[in-house]
Amino acid sequence: MRVGSISLLDFRSYSETELEFAEGLTAIVGPNGHGKTNLLEAVGYVAGLGSFRGAADAALIRDGTPAAVIRCSGQGAAGRAVLIEVELARTRPNRVRVNQQPVARRRDLLGVLTATAFSPEDLELVKGEPSVRRRWMDDALAAVRPSWGALRGELDRILRQRNTLLRQAQGRAVGDVAVTLDVWDAKLAAVGDELRARRRDLLEAMTPEIARHYRGISQGQDDAGVRYESSWGDESLADALAASRREDLRRAASTVGPHRDDVVCEIGGLPARSHASQGEQRSLALALRLAVDGEVRRWRGIEPVMLLDDVFSELDAGRAAALLEALPSGQRILTTASPVLPAKIRPDQLIRVLDGAARTAGDG
């Protein structure tokens, strides 16, 4: 789906606004803190990404108002008109509709509007905690195959049940507790083995592209690599859970499983988290995002909408130019605080944002 227009009501800093987007490149320009990123965040939300800044839904509702509304219209396959409507409320469940039909879960939007978001927070993909990289990996699975997105939700549900049982056991698995724990172990093993396999396969497929994009953005300064690190080695999760049961009971927590895994990022054969400069880390984070975008295009035959939030701010001129060269075709929406756009950026549309108001350049 291509985004044609978006209207916001009481979303973040916007009381009410409506904007149209070009089919190619739209540049949103304005000082920091005036609402540029809020526009990208709204598009990302209706794409099923939630807040790519990691904000809770309540934080997206303008202060002093009970609810926020996002309406996004565009063209889907074969030019079919698509309307996505999201209402975020403080005191009742959120409402999501596609072409007037209710949608039960936000993640179901992943198959309607697909977007790839690049943001300053992406630096955490490289230098942050393993949970950030696990989320990136699972978001990539859901983007490539929306049905795979259910695996992480199922894993979380099983872990909640299993961990509750472990706390109730108070260090001892006897009688009914032992029987019930066996049931949850079997469920966890089945979902966990499949999720790990999906993650590994997708990461292996993306590894050459991650290396290629990093070489391009860094202008060949070094090589980058990624590898999957499992919390239970190469054995089956069922065997690992049996071996860890005593420790799990002692700690009242599940100590092995996909929720403990990591994606290790390296530059020049060294851990990027601890040995790379911030510019190198930023370049690798961009390469990770570009690789996911490429896999979505390959698997699903679509062009995701690219949301680029202030991605040039920490890149030197050479890396910024290389990133522009690496961006694939399709609809791209970027923000920048610089009143002068980086060299080689020729936007099809320019939107200026000031004091929470957005207008297309050339409008009155």
Query: Compute the gyration radius: what is it?
Result: 22 Å
Architecture (CATH level 2) name of the largest domain: Up-down Bundle
Terminal-residue CA separation: 30 Å
Please tell me the overall pLDDT. Answer: 91
Work out the oligomeric state of the chains in this entry: single chain
**How would you sum up the major sheet?**
6 strands, antiparallel
CATH class of the largest domain: Mainly Alpha
Structure summary, number of beta strands: 15
Q: What is the fold's blueprint, element by element?
A:
Layout: E1 2-11, E2 14-20, E3 25-29, H1 36-49, E4 67-75, E5 81-89, E6 95-98, E7 101-102, E8 115-118, H2 123-127, H3 130-144, H4 149-169, H5 176-217, E9 224-229, H6 237-251, E10 262-267, E11 270-271, H7 272-275, H8 278-300, E12 305-309, H9 317-326, E13 332-336, E14 349-354, E15 357-360
Parallel strand pairs: 3-13, 3-14, 8-12, 12-13
Antiparallel strand pairs: 1-2, 1-4, 4-5, 5-6, 6-7, 9-10, 10-11, 14-15
Helix pairs in contact: 3-5, 4-5, 5-6, 5-8
Could you give a quick summary of the protein structure above?
With 364 residues, this protein is of the alpha/beta class. It contains nine helices and 15 strands.
Can you tell me about this structure?
With 364 residues, the protein is of the alpha/beta class. It folds into two domains: 1-114 and 302-364, P-loop containing nucleotide triphosphate hydrolases (Rossmann fold), CATH 3.40.50.300; 120-300, Glutathione S-transferase Yfyf (Class Pi), Chain A, domain 2, CATH 1.20.1050.90. It has helices spanning 36-49, 123-127, 130-144, 149-169, 176-217, 237-251, 272-275, 278-300, 317-326; strands at residues 2-11, 14-20, 25-29, 67-75, 81-89, 95-98, 101-102, 115-118, 224-229, 262-267, 270-271, 305-309, 332-336, 349-354, 357-360. A six-stranded antiparallel beta sheet has the order 2-1-4-5-6-7, with helices on one face. It has a six-stranded mixed beta sheet with strand order 8-12-13-3-14-15, with helices on both faces. A three-stranded antiparallel beta sheet has the order 9-10-11. α4 (149-169) crosses α5 (176-217) and α5 packs across α8 (278-300). It is globular, with a radius of gyration of 22 Å. The protein starts with a strand and ends with a strand.
